[in-house]
Records
---
Amino acid sequence: MDGNQRMIAWSAEWALIGGVVACTGCMQSQPISKAEEPFPHDPSCAGKDEVASKPWAELHQILDEERG
Ligand SMILES: [Zn+2]
């Protein structure tokens, strides 16, 4: 996947709302200050085992690879 495809995949799973990233599966959220902690999904979240455990870190990696 190139950076654009990875960004599309990321934004299907996550939403940036104000200063937090939210899971589109359960709408739980995490501020960037907790970027190094595993994302606190709702226990009933259907997607929690299929998405990255650290969405901020994944976003950072996508940007890093695109921008060098
Ligand atoms: Zn979730």
---
Amino acid sequence: MIRTLERKLSALQHKAEDAVNRVRDRHLRLAVTGLSRSGKTAFITALVHQLERAAIDGRLPLWDAARQGRLLGARRVPQQNPQIPTFAYERGLGALFAEPPAWPEATRGVAEVRLELRYRTRHPLRRHLGEVSTLYLDLVDYPGEWLLDLPLLALNYHQWSQQVREQLTRPALAALAAPWQLTEQGEPWRPDRPFDEGEVARLAERYTAYLHACKDELGLHLIQPGRFVLPGEYQGAPMLQFVPWVWDPPVGTPAEDSLYATLGRRFEQYKQHLVQGFYEQHFAGFDRQIVLVDCLAPLNAGAESFADMQQSIARIMESFAYGKSNWWRRLFAPRIDKLLFVASKADHVTPEQHGPLVSLLQHLVQQGRGQARFEGITTECLALASIKATEAGRGMAGGREFPAIKGTSLAGEPLLLFPGEVPAQIPSAGWWQGQQFDFQAFRPLAMSPHQAMPHIRLDAALEFLLGDKLE
Ligand SMILES: Nc1nc2c(ncn2[C@@H]2O[C@H](COP(=O)(O)OP(=O)(O)O)[C@@H](O)[C@H]2O)c(=O)[nH]1
Ligand SMILES: [Mg+2]
């Protein structure tokens, strides 16, 4: 009895401390998102390493607190949320500093790491007292795909199914969808078919395989439900076992235990527990947000992939346009005050292309950025490389010199190339016909764990995200 009371008290105390830190501006929850492979894991790993080394041999001149020597140090401390996996920082470093160096392994789902930053304030009074201040910084990694599910909250099962039916009129999608559209007996599914657990599990599995094929074969991101391809800890749960109803709809009200009614209930459970649950448990607690965008891979992949990325980004942005609907504000009351858009992997292009790359990013996020501004959120666009894997230089071809980047391919071959010109705007149809792009993936450079890693403008990101907190 006393034990439980003690535990409760300590939990309360903990909460109170957390609240005090927050009021004194000493706690910041910084969320990092972006579509799969946009560079979230690399970004967080690099950021933590840079912060840990900042006061020793930091390479962060664009971050005032570091340049002025006010940052005294940073260290990892246990993160505070027992239900969220801890970000696999050590594992990431292990890969980066291995021989040969490799990128951190892909992760799925949400993860978090906490840092304690100690700094000297610039505030004249507190500075005079020699005060050292502390900022607890939580970095939270979560898949941007989860934000794509937001519009589902406004749809019922019937409406969502209708939407998918329309998408399936696109021939490329219809071809991939054929395998899940017929029963094991080769017939279309009927709404009044009695529900069978095993049968539906297999159907959902085939639907999930279709979503994976859309992603892998067509390079699409706008996939719903988003959790089917990135289930996190919910793999195999019944609320991840349903499909849109793309067959003849039911006549009248379907029976409780019919296939149609069961799928409809699971759709509602998915919305409530996973979509709404994510916004309540995580999103509502974020103070600042970074959205990473890999603009280069879709430029390589072609017009369809680029259009899909553009649409996905627009949809991700809807989560930051709170004002549009009151229910949204009421339900989640988010408090984000700064939003940073990042064109990641800028080391894939030659330095004079960084300008066009930022410009392209600005065009991509333009509309959502306007909405965020309207909500009082400060926004910024940057092109950066969390971990620089190339050197800028010059190459020769046909007796002419050209700007080039140099590095090592993932397979270990030396590469020297001019990847191409980044369009400064959303590319037109004509651009796609003339385009000659070659954005190659590079292996990380051989680096020492005892030195800060090479990067491009990671310090500019830090200045935007933390500058005012370390005043
Ligand atoms: N050259 C370069 N490649 C990067 C950088 N960041 C990410 N990448 C590449 O993008 C891949 C996906 O990055 P990752 O951080 O795992 O993406 P996530 O799925 O968003 O966590 C990596 O395996 C790297 O190949 C960077 O700063 N420079
Ligand atoms: Mg990741």
